[in-house]
Amino acid sequence: MRLKLSVLTTILCCIVIAKEAETVGIFSGPQEFCYTDMECGPDSDKWDGFCHSGKRQSPINLKVPYHSPSRYTHLLPLDRFQADHFFIQNNGHTINVDMTPVGENSQFFPGHGLSFTKYKFSNVHFHWGASNSEGSEHQLNSRNFSAEMHLTLRDAINSGDPNALAVVAIFLQVDDSVGPSPALAPLVNAIDQIREPHTHWMKVETPIDLSPLIPMRHDATVYSYQGSLTTPPCNSQVNWYVFGEPVPIWSSDVSAFRGVMDGRDAPLENNRRPVQPMSDRRIEIIKFV
Ligand SMILES: [Zn+2]
């Protein structure tokens, strides 16, 4: 079981599953990768595992055809994304937040049509750019957004399942008409304390509610496809659910993200993998009832 946990810890998107990640060094093994330098960027051998050989890689440019197949399901339970405290970490690649929703049972997604029956919320992390015109990992019809939030859900029962992970992705687009985000405030206020990269998680005794950042409405559209982790070792085991509607975000909130440092003594920004070939995969459109 320990071995299983250790392997799982190294494969989850960007970090992961929780405080088990404390045992993984920032600058050792598969985590030596970076985003912008030749010697450790996405084309280098630091992106090992399945990054160069995998067939269903992420992110992708979501070119949504007019006649995509669609299916209907129930709304995401937004109360699953609230907690009375959280843990935060700068692991040199992203700002990673681990939160345990109030009430043990509320971690699960019972009977949910997004195949979340056996998944539970694991963590949230972000990808952002050096400027407001870029930063998302996925593209929607070739458009980039200022940032992208990943809500990672992991298989609560069988981590060896090929569909062991689900990631809900939400585009964040700078729009200064909205002002500071109360949902992001607990994170932004804690950033000073995680400016330097570290494996340690810092406990923040502040309630957090990410639901305002999730554009969950009856008329929302979500694009789903089979993909991979977007960080080494890029395992192809992720069911992606990408909300089509970007959420407006204050520019200073994104700027705060740019204030943390990566593992190479430089500001952490452009922490996004380039889009990968679509190959013969299909994009499914999910609508809500
Ligand atoms: Zn991610």
From TrEMBL:
Question: Sorted alphabetically, which InterPro entries does this protein's record hold?
Answer: CA_dom, CA_dom_sf, Carbonic_anhydrase_a-class
Q: What superkingdom heads the lineage?
A: Eukaryota
Keyword check for Protein biosynthesis? no
Write out the GO MF terms: carbonate dehydratase activity; zinc ion binding
Instruction: Kindly state which keywords UniProt assigns to this record, in alphabetical order.
Output: Signal
- A Pfam cross-reference name: Carb_anhydrase
Gene Ontology annotations for the cellular component aspect, listed alphabetically: cytoplasm
Indicate the segments forming the Alpha-carbonic anhydrase domain, all copies: 31-287
Q: Which PROSITE patterns match?
A: ALPHA_CA_2
UniProt signal peptide: 1-21
Q: Which SMART domains match?
A: Carb_anhydrase
Write out the similarity annotation: Belongs to the alpha-carbonic anhydrase family.
Q: Give the protein name, as stated in the record.
A: Putative carbonic anhydrase 3
State the organism of origin. Answer: Folsomia candida (Springtail)
Q: What is the lineage of its organism?
A: Eukaryota, Metazoa, Ecdysozoa, Arthropoda, Hexapoda
